[in-house]
Amino acid sequence: MLQNLIAQLATAATDAELATIVARIADLIHERGEALARERLRAAAVLSEVTLRLEEMAGFLTESNSASRSHFDDSQSLNDNVMSHVRELTDEVSAATELGMLQSVVSARLSWVAKQFTDFRAREATRMAEYNGRAEHMRERIADLEREAQELHSKLDREKHGARLDPLTGVANRKSFDERFAQEITRRAHGGARAVLLLWDIDNFKVINDSYGHKAGDRVLQSVAACFTASLRASDFVARFGGEEFAVLLGGLGLVEAENIANQVRTAVEGLRFHFRKTPVRITVSCGITELHQDDAPEAAFERADAALYRAKNSGKNLCVAA
């Protein structure tokens, strides 16, 4: 659309036409700017969420390390205290002269040791409960992050798919066509199935835009794209190449078969009915056709189809011409 408007700038005959085209270009640039701004905001939100999750994980690891250190220190302290009391008990036993005194000393020391172990087990139980709670919380957060990552992945796939479609007509865009065309050229170079390129142009499209407005032009583009899709096989590739131009790739067919199909599509488009400002408007298309060769370069194949389209336009339009 933008390329079409830029081309129209060179042919604008009046200041009013020029102002309309410039305003349309400004609207498109503004829409693109808003779309980029929305993408930046979404990316910032995703990064913020990921940063938060990473901070939570770092905190969990820090707490776990602290708990492990606390456990080690507590165990070491218990061991030191018990060993200290064992040594003291040994000294006291050696110094005891009466059985009753010996029993009392041993009983007191064992009671103290038993209490130390009881307290230690209680602290361990508390630490374990806290650790399990943090671990369960982190498992939940990781599960949330995995779900969010999957949702983001799906969203990126949808956006990637959307970025390969023409937003107005819903068929493939120029980028998608370039990739598919290169694949077909490579496939033919390696002896793959036959394929044919069809280049289409809506006849007198500028007159429609100038006479009935861009909304009318958009409606024509949408209807023609839908007609192409409906008239071709599901395996055929349809793309809006730019402005009022479309490209079609037919796989597994030769030139004669492709020319027959192209004329069927051309007739279907001619059968579309449009009324703008209560006036019936006839829409036709012209087509240039070329079969892809095994030794083709993309530029050579495209130039053949483009030259055939040029001949169709110069021969009265509403024609399909094979290179």
Q: Describe it for me?
A:
The chain is an alpha+beta fold and 323 residues long. It folds into two domains: 45-162; 166-322, Reverse transcriptase/Diguanylate cyclase domain (Alpha-Beta Plaits, 2-Layer Sandwich). It is 71% helix and 11% strand. It contains eight helices and seven strands; from the N terminus they run ααααβααββαβββαβ. It has helices at residues 2-9, 15-95, 99-163, 174-189, 205-212, 214-231, 255-270, 298-314; strands at 195-202, 237-242, 245-251, 274-276, 279-281, 285-291, 320-322. A five-stranded mixed sheet has the order 2-3-1-6-7, sandwiched between helices. Strand 4 (274-276) and strand 5 form a beta hairpin. Helix 1 runs antiparallel to helix 2 (15-95), helix 2 (15-95) packs antiparallel against helix 3 (99-163) and helix 6 (214-231) packs across helix 7. The longest helix has 81 residues, at 15-95. It is elongated and about 130 Å long. The model has no long low-confidence stretch (mean pLDDT 79).
